[in-house]
Amino acid sequence: MLYFSRITGLFDYGAVFLMVVTIIVFLVPIFILFPPVPVDHSDALRQTHSKLGRPQRESHLRSQYDARHKPQAGKTPTIESLYIYPIKSCRGIELDRAKVLPTGLEHDRLYMFAQLKPKSSSAVTESGAQTESSSAWEFLTLRQLPLLANVKVDIWLPDAGKKSRLLGSLQGGFVAVRFPWQERGFLGLVQLLVAKLSRGWSAGPEKEFILPLEFPSKQEIDARGYRYANVKVWVDAPYALDMSNELPAELATYLGVKHSLGIFRSDPSARRKVFRTAPRKEMSGHEAEIDFHDAVNYNVPSYHPCFASNKQTDIIVSGTSAQSVKYPSARVKDSKGQIH
């Protein structure tokens, strides 16, 4: 005990505290300049862009089960919410207002995931590799890959009021895509800790990649190594831009894709024609075209009986039954009372 007390008497707590503070002050700028976990693209885009859409905590769908949304005699149907899905079958973005284009709502179904499926059992080489001549691209939806429902999509638009000291002012919009992903071992534990500290206790690690919102120019296509290919969408096989080299390898692993995973961008000059569900050109004055929609420009369900959160819907209407939401034509009153 006497020996221990002599040691503690020689121990300078003030010097130890000063040393710890010095080390922390030295390490803080190191971690800021060289963070142990890479900074997300979205964190960088916040400096020059603004995110499109309503925050999830302010979603109109939070009240979808209220009795006031049920069909009522004499009640005029009301548009409750607008949604777009920049990537087909992934999470949507809720909007307060949307620009209506001949193809549908602006930024809707621009991208689509696909897999390179063999045309026949003999189309795979001895090494197990697939080639373009022996296989064909076919679109993927939630029916084949339910985990697509966990893929989050954001649109970042340039903000004239923002300017980064390092990046300046960036032009053009971006589509940010995030999906759950945690590395193994110690790095995975660090990712988990960072996710919970930065985004809440219920958050988990995610991996992110970005895509251009606008259709790339020929120079960008050549520089990025994109190429064109036919991709099957139901009975059609439109010519679209293959941007699969932008996908991280982890995404195919997470989704559980059996074949090569790809992502395609609809080409504005080679959109799909709509014949079955659209008015004729003689009636509308133009030929109906769509990007990667199923067969219609807009999906218009009601809140009841099929709830909108279970469907990839664009215009969500309350005050009417699902059976009655069949509009060969419609007139909409805006916030100023004008009818269109």
UniProtKB/TrEMBL annotation:
Residues crossing the lipid bilayer are 12-34
A Pfam family reported for this protein in Swiss-Prot or TrEMBL: MOSC_N
What does the UniProt keyword field contain? Membrane, Transmembrane, Transmembrane helix
Q: List residues of the Molybdenum cofactor sulfurase middle domain.
A: 78-155
**Keyword Membrane attached:** yes
The organism's place on the tree of life at top rank: Eukaryota
Q: Where is this region: Disordered?
A: 50-74
Q: Where is the composition biased (Basic and acidic residues)?
A: 55-69
Protein name per the record: MOSC domain containing protein
